[in-house]
Design brief:
Blueprint lengths: L1 E3 L5 E3 L7 H14 L3 H39 L8
Length: 83
């Protein structure tokens, strides 16, 4: 089911099953933050996705830094440093 909210964003309904302890923790954390459980879960997922993206970029940059000379040797010095 997709719904449009007042801010114009489309929302999709997602149902998940968790144990009662996890559900209680989600309700408690959401209440502490003054948001709905839906909003709390949405924020957790967005945060997790953002951290993964940053981790990937950092790992890729580290890889290129470590192996830049190997790539330059293989593909030619004229390409070294271009990104």
């Amino acid at each position: 089911m997709r719904r449009r909210w007042l801010d114009g964003t489309a929302k999709t309904q997602l149902n998940v099953r968790v144990d009662e302890t996890t559900a209680a923790a989600a309700r408690e954390r959401a209440a502490q933050r003054g948001v709905s459980v839906n909003r709390y879960i949405e924020e957790l997922v967005r945060k997790d996705a953002g951290e993964r993206g940053r981790s990937f970029v950092e790992a890729a940059a580290d890889f290129m830094e470590r192996y830049e000379s190997v790539f330059a040797e293989e593909f030619g010095a004229e390409r070294e440093g271009r990104r």
